[in-house]
Amino acid sequence: MDKLVEKALAFIENADGNVLTVPEVADALKVNRRALERRFKAAECGTLLDAITEARLRKAARMLALSDKTIYDIAEECSFSTPSYLVSVFRRRFGVTTREFRQICRDCGGYDDEEVKRVGLKQWLTSRK
Questions:
Q1: Which residue did the predictor score with more confidence, 128 or 85?
Q2: What CATH number corresponds to the domain at position 74?
């Protein structure tokens, strides 16, 4: 994989789901935004914005599984404009609502953050449904 793309992904991961914009990632890596976006496309790993959104969704998933926070609080902490937008994006990406996700985590005995990082949240969920 492209070294610059790897650096961008590591930077996004280290932000732990905090709000990042495409220009902020490019500035942090001291590269042109469009050049970074082209490198993502060439590496065939989605878009830079997809990677940022994915990190925010993983943070939301962790919070859903490991806390009793409301969806409103989680949406706010993960910088989704509304709780309904978080639920919509979560469902579109993972095939379950945030409520269903919480239930799956309860039914299967918990959430393993290390395994989710290794195999991806969608695959982790599929193995538990």
A1: 85
A2: 1.10.10.60
